[in-house]
Specification:
Elements (H helix, E strand, L loop, with lengths): L4 H13 L2 E6 L1 H5 L19 H4 L2 H6 L1 H17 L4 H10 L4 E6 L5 H5 L4 E3 L8 E2 L33 E2 L11 H13 L2 E5 L11 H7 L3 E6 L9 E4 L2 H13 L6
Parallel strand pairs: 1-2, 1-6, 2-3, 6-7, 7-8
Antiparallel strand pairs: 4-5
Helix pairs in contact: 1-10, 6-10, 8-9
């Protein structure tokens, strides 16, 4: 599916008229900062491992050093990454629209480092670990031992119960954090425009948010490098940064992202 000028003109008009915009982001926006997605081949020590086999509570119970080491490797990649033009474009958008809520499926902090202030993390935050035994949360990793190409590493221990500290992410088979999910559902119901960026549309329950917004009267725009089934929604096909820069320029002028 190729974009045409009418697609962008329609999306820009929706953006100009919006009072509350919900931005739903997925792996596609962080991939432009060099953070690998779960579909990308792993490298170094980890190239023979399947990410989906490491991202479970059962895997952590069976081999906590292996799982913790993998997530430390991923956390170091996030630490070295920088927000890209798409992240900064969303910050610029927040200066043009009365209310912008960012709902992300990513576990990195690139939205916050770019300057976004209202960010809902549906799948957790890799920089906010918690105890596997008592669930005590930590604002930072207690023992920063990650090495970019490292292997297994024994996880640090909880200061309260001496249990092993686990990554602060949502693993396969785990429920989403309820407070964040409630915020996301509420925002989808009351927004007048939802823009989905770099998401596959197949990871639930996040994938239900565009439909929920539509059911409550909002318009929905998808930005993705691949063609996806969007029914009556608008699809802008291309990279997140290029699409957002063009969209903001059409909606608010060429100085919109400055």
């Amino acid at each position: 599916m190729m974009n045409n000028d009418n697609d962008y003109a329609s999306a820009a008009q929706l953006l100009r008229n919006a009072r509350h915009v919900v931005i739903l982001t997925g792996a596609g926006i962080s991939a432009q900062s060099g953070i690998p997605t779960f579909r990308d081949a792993l490298t170094g020590f980890w190239k023979s491992f399947d990410p989906q086999q490491l991202a479970t509570a059962a895997a952590f119970r069976d081999n906590p050093a292996l799982v913790w080491g993998w997530y430390e490797w991923r956390r170091q990649l996030v630490k070295q990454a920088r927000p890209n033009a798409a992240h900064h474009a969303l910050v610029a958008l927040s200066r043009r629209v009365p209310h912008v809520t960012v709902i992300t499926q990513n576990v990195d902090d690139l939205h916050e480092r770019a300057g976004s202030t209202e960010v809902v993390h549906l799948h957790g935050n890799i920089n906010r670990p918690r105890c596997f035994a008592c669930a005590r949360g930590y604002d930072a990793v207690p023992c920063d031992t990650g090495e970019l190409n490292g292997g297994p590493q024994e996880p640090p221990r909880c200061l309260r119960c001496n249990g092993r500290i686990r990554p602060g992410v949502v693993w396969f088979g785990e429920p989403l954090p309820q407070a964040e999910l409630r915020l996301a559902l509420k925002a989808a119901k009351i927004c007048d425009l939802l823009i989905s960026i770099g998401t596959s549309g197949v990871v639930y329950p996040a994938a239900t948010l565009p439909g929920l917004a539509r059911d409550h009267g909002a318009a929905v725009v998808h930005i993705n490098t691949d063609s996806i089934e969007v029914q009556t929604d608008l699809l802008l096909q291309g990279s997140a940064d290029a699409c957002l820069i063009r969209l903001l320029a059409l909606a608010f002028g060429n100085t919109a992202i400055n």
